[in-house]
Amino acid sequence: MDELIPLSWANLHRLPRGLRAPSYDRSRLSAGIVHIGLGNFHRAHQAWYTHHLFDAGVNHDWAIIGAGVRQGDATMRKKLLAQDCLTTLIELDPSGKSAEVTGAMIDFLPVEQDNTALIAQMAAPEIRIVSLTVTEGGYFTDPATGGLDTAHPDIRHDATYPDRPRTAFGAMVAALKRRRALGLGPFSGLSCDNLQGNGTVLRRTVVGLARLSDPALADWIAAECSFPNSMVDCIVPATGPHEIALARDFGISDAAPVTHEKFRQWVIQDDFCAGRPDWDRAGAVFSADVHSYETMKIRILNGGHQIICGAGELLGLGTIAATMAHDGIARLFHRITHEEIAPHVAPVPEMTPEAYIEVIARRFANSGIVDTTRRVAFDGFNRHAGFIVPSIRDGLAKGTPVEGLALVSAIWARYCTGQREDGTQIGANDPHWSSLQATAHAALTQPEAWLDQRQIYGDLKHAPRFAEAFYAWSKFLREHGVEAAIAQYCADHDTSLKSTD
User: In DSSP terms, which residues pair with 268 in a beta bridge?
Assistant: First the structure.
């Protein structure tokens, strides 16, 4: 490519021929959504749907204003404002690459410790939806009770100083307090994180936090606001030099391009108290049964990621595609998903769990998507608790196998020791890494120590069928290694694990 075009609104007319750019006049857009936690996934998913509505000539009063509450968000803000909040999306498919520039986002708020600008924007009358991608573990859930963790220092701070909140949820409460006082009415809170019942979780966090400082406000939020559940799905790797180079290959200088797979899915409960965009016109699905869709996705895709990433990391396989190219790990994925997960997943319109497994296997095997095993393994503390443990519990309750899921748990414990099988070190990769690593080392000789982590496993230590399989696999891994353990599990179904001891 002879000339690189710096990405900006003024340069859109200079983009290379054939590269799709916004057809709408962004100066005529007005904000309707504030999105908190504006990273790659949001720009490849929710913002993409909104952009395509704008391109169709509709819903121009639903543009997105970005926001964040972490220091890393300030870095993203600087990059995006420098290019007028435009994003180059690069679709990576085995059949080839394509790119488009999207422009549904029109501003990015300052990232401040007391969230003054964020509160003011969410309190503005034109804002009717506040959406979030703050990760599965970002909702301050007490693992012991499933409710709000009122002992967390940030929650205690926001309850004590509700006008100077640290958290996104405290900012939402402060904005809703201001809206109620001004008679502006509520907004809808839309979680786009991989959580079962994510809207229900968001409601619990916001209402629970409000109740700590202003019970009357909490009652108003509970009665007036809506928190629709949603299921989101698109594999979106992190951005690094490789992704920036891909944008350059298309002739664009973009400091924060996003790569993604061809597949997208968004299923949303149609429960919005202040209106919504017509996202269904861009391919989203509004359904009263989000639960079935999210169960299929969380158990098979997100659970499938956890099945393969730990083994891949321990064997030095850097990407998800590389793990699926490993015959043993691919067989591990197929057997566990078919035998230990699919029996507890209901079909959805036009898709059975078995067919969905094959769709996911093809998506994972897409070598064009440079999705690292390290990224997928991040925050296993919350991901195993949310994506793997529910299938274990269903298997125990219904009498179906759990041996493979016990092996996955044992592999994760071995991963958390921080050392691959070739002796290289695994860097800290979890908000709870220090405690996980200490427990993993203790579990090398006392595997029951791993299951003592009640925040993850609850009472599963006292479920003999799972616990005994976990202990046996822990011993086998210590003596024979990951590849041998996978081969043993994937061997004849009648082979007894104990026969190899």
Answer: 230, 286
Can 5-288 and 291-500 be said to share one CATH topology?
A: no
Bridge partners for 137 per DSSP: none
Is 371 within 8 Å of 237 (Cβ atoms)? yes
- What local confidence, expressed as pLDDT, does residue 2 receive? 63
**H helical segments located in 105-197:** 116-122, 153-160, 168-182
Looking at residue 492, its pLDDT comes to 53
**CATH of 5-288 given 3.40.30.10, 3.40.50.720, 3.40.250.10, 1.10.1660.10:** 3.40.50.720
Pairing of strands 129-132, 188-191: parallel
pLDDT digits (tens, 9 = 90+) for 11-37: 999 998 889 999 999 999 999 999 999
CA nearest 7: which of 105, 84, 114?
Answer: 84
Question: What is the residue extent of each domain of the chain?
Answer: 5-288, 291-500
Grouping H, G, I as helix, E, B as strand and the rest as coil, residue 401 is coil
In angstroms, rounded to a whole number, what is the distance separating the alpha carbons of residues 416 and 437? 5
**Predicted local confidence at residue 94, as pLDDT:** 87
Half-sphere exposure of 111 (CA within 13 A, CB side): 18
Question: How many angstroms separate the CA atoms of 171 and 5, rounded?
Answer: 38
Angle at 225 between CA 224 and CA 226, to 5 degrees: 125
Per-residue pLDDT reduced to its tens digit, 357-402: 999 999 999 998 989 999 999 999 999 999 999 999 999 999 999 9
Contact of 360 with 301, CB cutoff 8 Å: yes
Q: What is the CATH number of domain 291-500?
A: 1.10.1040.10
Query: Would you say 379 and 430 are in contact if contact means Cβ atoms under 8 Å apart?
Result: yes
Query: Residue 230 belongs to what H/E stretch?
Result: strand 230-233
pTM: 0.87
pLDDT value of position 496: 42
- The pLDDT of residue 95 is 86
**Residue 255 DSSP symbol:** S
Q: Tell me which DSSP letter residue 237 carries.
A: P
Looking at residue 137, what is its pLDDT? 85
Question: Across the strands, what pairs with 101?
Answer: 88
Going by the DSSP 8-state scheme, the letter that residue 426 receives in this structure is P
Joined together, the tokens standing for residue 406 give 């016990």
How many angstroms separate the CA atoms of 234 and 292, rounded? 18
Residue 410 Cα to chain centre, angstroms: 23
pLDDT of residue 499: 38
Q: What is the DSSP string of 310-340?
A: HHHHHTT--BHHHHHHSHHHHHHHHHHIIII
Whether 298 contacts 386, CB under 8 Å: yes
Look up tokens 């006082």; give the residue.
181
Tokens of 417: 């020791």
The residue ranges of the chain whose pLDDT is under 70 are 1-2, 492-501
